[in-house]
Amino acid sequence: MRTALRIINEAMATHTKACLAFSGGSDSVLLMDLIFRHTEHRPVVVFADSQMEYPETETFCRTVCGHYDAKLHIARASHTPEEQWRRYGWPMMGKIAARKWMQRHKQRPLGFKIDVSTCCRMMKIAPARRLAKKLGCTLQFTGVRGASDDILRGLRAIKDGATHYVKADDLTVCNPLTGWTDTMGRRYRDKYDLPVHPSKARGAVTIGCVCCGGGSQFTESFIEAKQTQWAAFRKRLGQEHVPVSFKEVAASVDSFPSPIVAVFSSGKQSPTNWTAPGPWA
User: Fold this and answer.
1) What is the Cα–Cα distance from 19 to 132, expressed in whole angstroms?
2) How far apart are CA 213 and CA 215, in angstroms?
C-alpha cells in the first residue's frame, strides 16, 4: 500500500486537477477508497457508460460515490455499440487473439472483422478521457493492475511504468495498483469492508461490458439480470417455440460458434467444414 500511495502523491505533485476512472469493479472501488481514505486528494470521479453495462452498475457507482461525498460524472460515446461493431469489428476472442486472427486473415477477408481493442478505446476509454479534459483534468487515475489483469496490460505496465503520458489524449495516466495481486486486493477489501458490485456478488467474473466476447461471457449473473428483459422480448415476438428461459438461449448462442472459435484461438488451420450446432436456420 505504501508504494501505491507514493505513486499517487508523486503524480499529484505535478498536477493540479485529477480524475478517477471509476467502473464500479473491485479494483476501482479499492483505488477510490485508497485515495479518499489515505490521502487528501479528491479527484473528479468519471464513469464511462459503454451502453453495455450491468443494469445495477450506474446505481452502484452513485452509491459508492455518495459514501465518499464525491460527484459522479458520466461519459458516453456518441454512437451505439452496434454502430461501433459494424464499422470497426466485433469484440470477440480477446484483444491479443483478435489481433492475431485479423493478421492471419488479412489477405483473405471473410466478410467481417473482429476487434476488441478498438471497441474498448472508442466506447469507454476515449469518452472518459475527453470528459476528463473538459473538466480541466490533466491526470487520470485508473485501477489497472498490469500483469495481474491480463497479458496485454502486463506488457504495457513494463513498457510505460505506473505513470505515463498519453499523447493521443493529452493526458497523463497513473495506475497506482500496478503490481497488486488478487490476494493483496482481497485483503485490503476485507480489511475495510468495501462494497461489492451486486453482479459480482452473484458470481460475475468481471464488471464490464456484459456482451463483450473479449472479457465478459454469459455468466450466471448476466443471465439472471437479462431474464426479465428476455421475457418481455419473447412476449412481443409471440412465438411459442421460443425458449422461456434465457439460460437456454445463452447456452445455444454460446455453443453455436464454439467449434470455429476454438480452432481460430488455437492458431491451427481453419476448418473447411463446419456443422453449426443448435436450432439455426
Assistant:
1) 6
2) 6
Same domain for 258 and 124, yes or no, is no
Number of H helices, E strands in the chain: 13, 6
Q: pTM, whole model, 2 decimals?
A: 0.72
Contact 53, 209 (CB under 8 A): yes
User: Which stretches in the chain have pLDDT values below 50?
Assistant: 147-152, 154-155, 216, 281
The Cα–Cα gap between 142 and 22 comes to 7
Cα dihedral value 101, 105, 109, 114, nearest 10: 10
Do both 196 and 222 map to the same domain?
A: no
Please give the Cα distance from 7 to 243 (Å, whole number): 52
What are 240-263's pLDDT values in tens digits? Answer: 888 888 888 777 766 666 666 566
Give which of 12, 31, 10 is closest to 20, Cα–Cα. 31
Are 29 and 145 part of one and the same domain? yes
CA-based nearest residue to 231, from 248, 255, 218, 216: 248
Distance of alpha carbon 253 from alpha carbon 193, whole angstroms: 38
Distances (CA, A) of 29 to 60, 63, 105, 184, 188: 10, 11, 40, 14, 11
The domain of 34 spans 2-80+119-202
